[in-house]
Amino acid sequence: ANKLVTVKNVSKTFAVNKGLFGKKKFVHAVNDVSFDIFAGETFSLVGESGCGKSTTGRLINHLVSPDSGEIIFDGKNISNIKEKEMRSLRSEIQMIFQDPYGSLNPRMKIQDLIGEPLLVHTKMSSRERLKKVHELLEVVGLSPLHGERYPHEFSGGQRQRIGIARALTVRPKLIIADEPVSALDVSIQAQVLNLMQDLQKEYDLTYLFISHDLSVVEMISDRIAVMYLGTIVEIATKDNLYDHPTHPYTRALLSAVPIPDPEQKQKRIVIKGDIPSPTNLPSGCLFRTRCPYATDKCKNEKPEYIEIEKGHFVRCHYAREMEEKFNV
Ligand code: SF4
Ligand code: MG
């Protein structure tokens, strides 16, 4: 398959001011992150809040620029692209967010909200725009009559449909969905995820799906990257990740998810302690302060990725030993 996005050794640090007399500190939000997203797939970033997944999405959408590393979108290096050049790419990457009410202006009619990107990115007449908006309302399972209403008149699930319609107006290649169903009831989540999957086929969409919720990610992903403290610790196809989770952090995350399988043979890992501050990263392996298997080597050397099976990468010195320990 074609690579739509390549992220190569990308890091991003933000300066935070510690008050009037404190020393300036740096938050290491994204640390040496690399992955590809193939055209037509759903690639997910999963991890706990603050692990750098949203920042990674913002880097790809060029809302922030990387300190180092490269981001290639559709064959074009956008790492340090000028805003003017980026403007023409803006319509090709669209975002949907967790709280569509928060991201939708409450004083705008739905039809104006959905039609806004068309106003910005195309030369359509207002009549053409309205026609397009009505079409899209139907595509996402709403009625054209809804166009005259305001965001607060809709349920959370409907508002997410509106957010999706808005993202679709300009026929993007990539949609970055940052916790798109996290605010919704489980039954509504499934409906929105199903809609996203249907639209993916119909509109040849590629998704970067960002979520803290492993059960949601399992429903929608083709491939998954697990993030911890701004780095990716494991990348695999969905099946490989859920059947053979290998990085100790991935295993800990997954073992916290209740799995309705009485014959479940996965050993439970409970990790101790808190996530270290991203202003003060551990040496060596970023997970070592909480890893039950850490050694001196983990303290002294940063692990690289080991490909334990085709396309399954684990950032751990002992990836092969872990595989043997867990996956027999
Ligand atoms: Fe644990 Fe060491 Fe592997 Fe890091 S490299 S996950 S500390 S065993
Ligand atoms: Mg986030």
Look up the CATH topology of the largest domain.
Answer: Rossmann fold
Q: Major beta sheet, specifics?
A: 8 strands, mixed
- Mean pLDDT, as a whole number? 91
The CATH homologous superfamily of the largest domain is termed P-loop containing nucleotide triphosphate hydrolases
How far is it from the N-terminal to the C-terminal residue, by CA?
31 Å
Radius of gyration of CA atoms, rounded to a whole number = 21 Å
Task: Please report the number of helical segments.
Answer: 12
Q: What small-molecule ligands were found?
A: iron/sulfur cluster, magnesium ion
How many domains in all?
2
| Helical content (DSSP H or I, runs of 4+) | 25-40%
For the largest sheet, list the strands in their spatial order. 6-7-8-3-9-10-12-11
CATH-level-2 architecture of the largest domain? 3-Layer(aba) Sandwich
Protein name: Dipeptide ABC transporter ATP-binding protein
Keywords: ATP-binding, Nucleotide-binding
